[in-house]
Design brief:
UDP-N-acetylmuramoyl-L-alanine:D-glutamate ligase
């Protein structure tokens, strides 16, 4: 069983299922629905690692509030190691407001709260005691924590996997050490290098541009319904995903990159890992919510068996 250390965010998601998102100054009466669902890119990934058969240790912070209590209870029930999860007395638990339109596409506003309070002590202790096989990060926490975690992991010779979720243009990419894998989606790739990977030719161009900014063995562009583009530093390949009508794309990228990371650690093949991750992502988009939509290993493997029967 591979051991993954996730240093990232924990939120409660307020999910608004709407027909359309209003423009500035507009008030809309909508007959959709809303719900509160545990989320946060880090938590989604931690849950994916645990459900897909990894041993996950989660370094994050939540507030001293009822929401924080609910999230910690969930993580423990899912088998996630919360020994290094701390409670912040000076900030509320993170909150994300997610608008899900009829097409399944989403728009997200995140209020980080306690996620900005992760400390070097938490990271040092987790790396020293958990002895992970890999470090997994996103950009929904403070920059200093990200850079510190990558530096300590690099010194400990622990491979580093980064999902570019929530990256901002001001992040100092040149300060990151060498990574095993870096995975942005289309909008994140545009933010990083100014190139939209909207064709296979542009995917290669964007990957090359990103590789000049970030030292990574593998770059994997998440392209939504088009699949994913894997780049190894010299050449790239588009790996199509499965044709399916999405219900809710929330957490799909988080589930995909977690599945990609875990399978890659298990088999060593980025192509095989990408195909496996597509299945995890496909199942996720057919369900509503964030954490509630992420599949288990048994569900992914059963889906793969059914796919083979249909061939």
């Amino acid at each position: 069983m591979k051991k993954i250390l996730v240093v990232s965010s924990a939120n409660m998601d307020m999910v608004l299922n709407v027909n359309s998102v209003p423009v500035a100054g507009q008030t809309v009466i909508d007959n959709g629905s809303y719900s509160y669902v545990p989320g946060g890119k880090g938590a989604n990934s931690a849950l994916a690692f645990a459900r897909l058969g990894g041993k996950c240790t989660f370094v994050t912070r939540v507030g001293m509030d009822q929401t924080g209590d609910e999230l910690v209870d969930l993580y423990r029930k899912e088998g996630i190691d919360t020994c290094y999860l701390k409670r912040a007395t000076d900030a509320k638990t993170g909150l994300a407001t997610i608008f899900v339109e009829g097409s399944g596409q989403n728009r997200i506003i995140v209020f980080p709260g306690a996620n900005q309070k992760i400390t070097p002590d938490q990271i040092d202790q987790a790396i020293a005691e958990a002895k992970p096989d890999a470090l997994f990060l996103q950009f929904e926490i403070n920059h200093d924590a990200i850079l510190y975690a990558t530096r300590v992991a690099r010194e400990a010779k622990i491979p580093i996997f980064i999902d570019a979720g929530a990256i901002t243009p001001d992040f100092p990419l040149d300060k990151l050490p060498e990574l095993e894998l870096f995975s942005p989606n289309e909008s994140e790739a545009l933010t990083i290098c100014g190139i939209s990977p909207d064709s296979e030719e542009k995917c290669l161009e964007a990957s090359r541009a990103i590789s000049k900014l970030i030292k990574a063995k593998h770059i994997v562009l998440k392209l939504g319904s088009r699949g994913a583009y894997i780049y190894n530093g010299s050449s790239g390949e588009l790996i199509p995903t499965l044709p399916i009508k999405p219900v809710d794309t929330t957490a799909a990228g988080d589930a995909f990159t977690a599945a990609l990371t875990l399978k890659y650690l298990e088999c060593g093949s980025i192509r095989e890992a990408c195909a496996y991750a597509h299945v995890a992502g496909t199942i996720t988009v057919t369900r509503k919510g964030a954490s509630s939509s992420i599949p288990t290993r048994d569900e992914v493997e059963a889906f793969i068996v059914e796919m083979k029967k249909k061939k």
